[in-house]
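Researcher: We're teaching a course module on how sequence relates to structure. For the next exercise, students receive a sequence and then see the predicted structure as tokens, so they can try to spot secondary structure elements on their own. Here is the exercise chain.
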Amino acid sequence: MIKATLRNPALRKRATQFGRLVRHSAVTPRAGSTYKPQLVHNGELGVTFIGHASFFVQMGGQNITIDPNFARWLFLLKRVRKPGLRINDLPPIDLVLVTHAHFDHLHRPSLRAIVHHTRRLTGRAPTLVIPHHVFDLVSDLGFNQIIELDWWNHYRHDG
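Model: And here is the predicted structure for the students to work with:
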């Protein structure tokens, strides 16, 4: 089966590209710096890029993370840039939004760390908003509430 797959030129090219990516990430020094987030006042909007697909959003007095991923490694791939923020520098998080269940967007250790961080600061855990059929992947992480949305559903978070 594997020999037949590697005879396919398109798959062989992809396997070669992935091998180069793994080697490149392994030998490339991790660059970048982490910063403390610039906090905004209740009436303002603040958006901070953390890295890859992760954002920290401040809106309406609420602190939100989108696809939080603070990992140094993702399986075989080393993160070549440091996350722009450290979890311990974040204020308590009210809501976490995970856009889809790919391992680089739904990073269980980062989600668990946000729960612990927020619980340490406030005594409560944040709310998690996830796509439909993802509940089983996150149900054991300690979130206060998990909102599972199907296509075209919506959720209003009142804090």
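Model: If you want an answer key for the exercise: The beta strands are 46-51, 54-59, 62-66, 73-74, 77-78, 95-97, 127-131, 145-149. The chain has two domains: 1-30, 32-149.
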